Amino acid sequence: MSRRTSIFLALIAAALVAPAGASAAPGGANLSLKVGHLHGGKAKILSKVPITGTLAPSAAGEKVDLLFFRNGHQVGTEHLDVGAGGDFKSNFHVRRGGRFAVQATHEASAAVPGAASARKKFGVSFPSLGLGRCGRIVRGFKKALKQQGYVPSGGSCFNDQDSRAVLAFRKVNNDSHNFHSGRGIVKAVFAGHGAFHLKYPKAGKHAEVSISKQVLVLAAGGKPVQTYHVSTGKSSTPTITGHFNFYLRQPGTNGEGMVNSTYFHGGYAVHGYPSVPPTYPASHGCVRVPIPDSLHIYNSIDLGESIWVY
Fold it and tell me: How far apart are CA 129 and CA 146, in angstroms?
């Protein structure tokens, strides 16, 4: 074999040698993806979803991007290093409801062709909550309620105050008037739906009483801050309607059994009372609130502050 022929064959052999780890499959690289901890195609709200995948072939220094979608719109990207065996992993924290999807992509490098995985889709499941239930979901539920202007308790356990907040939420959203926080209620709260829509959002710090919904709303900054279930006047003794100003405060319990009263017109007041039915107006004309809520409401209202009753 001549020297010229030997050089020519060596060049051909060098051209056929692929970079280390890059013996590509026909058509390019393969990018697989798995989403774990799903039940019936759904992840639990506030759970941590493991995401694993493999890039093949792979090489040292390769990277992939994880693309996250919610309801068809991209909401985030995470850049990951690919391990020696082509593997990569991450976790996705499910903080709200929706239809989610994740996809992995790899930009072509000198060693490995570009690739993209199929989108892996999953939904979110929600539990029912009730008295005595504790944990991170309860804590997250109460945080979401508070962000919408309701008044749950603190901590991570569900108690009577939280049941009253759920009743107020139900009243505002025209649901049946009970204390049950079923899956639909929990889903709506985590989705950020269901806040009271103020009739007078530009009135500054003020109060509104909706007789039709049977709620009292303390507002500031153009949004509801505290929303409570109440009982207004029954048909024979209806609550007066209109625009008024709070003019008198009376702490404690008076001779009529009214607790922590704030008057806005004559003898009409917002006050605590032992009986605040969840399903119907029952007062003698005042705005009754549950006694456990009365002191917080009393301390939140300023003399001279406006109240609209409608």
Answer: 16
